[in-house]
Prior knowledge:
CATH architecture of the largest domain: Orthogonal Bundle
Strand content: under 5%
Structural class: mainly alpha
Number of strands: 0
Radius of gyration: 19 Å
Oligomer: single chain
Order of helices and strands: HHHHHHHHHHHHH
Helix content: 55-70%
CATH topology of the largest domain: Endonuclease III, domain 1
Number of domains: 2
Largest sheet: none
Number of helices: 13
Amino acid sequence: MSMKLAREHIIKADSVLGGFIRRFGPIKRAQPDFEEPYHALLSAVAHQQLHARAAQAIFGRLKLACGETLPDPHVLLALPDATLRACGFSANKALAIRDVAAKAADGTIPTRARAMRLADDELIQRLVSIRGVGRWTVEMILIFTLRRPDVLPIDDFGVREGYKRLHGLDAQPKPKALAEIGEAFAPYRSTAALYLWKAADEAKSVKTVS
Length: 210
């Protein structure tokens, strides 16, 4: 995806967001933390409802328990429940972790190479079948791991808050309304989301300083 083309398209589609894009400038994107959807999903489930440091510690213990830098699904599935508890996983989260591994082992979670040949909707349908994984989590995998260019997470608080702040609205747009608004950003909705997150962060920073 050409970020330059994406920015130019969005600037033409929405003058207000476009003004922010011009002022903010290009977004420097870091390399994904994980290349494979399986590893990204394992990390996402480990981080759910936990402080980042606590989640990283638990995920680190899981890697040690599997004896690998990143756990192989078959090795993870062979771990006893007591080992997962010792890593710090709750009973429900252990079940979710096992389901991620099982879905990777049976091919429901595709490899990165296979995922590149699947449409966004098919990937979403596949991955939301995993215990503890919802549409938002999958959208984050699409945007940040697979770098899909046309994903707008309409339920995301930050995306909706960024749009509200930029456009001076009294309330965040509802998901359905944001989906309709986002049609104008296609096929570069992921870039629009990145800038809306930045707008929300900037507004938060200004509020904190004041």
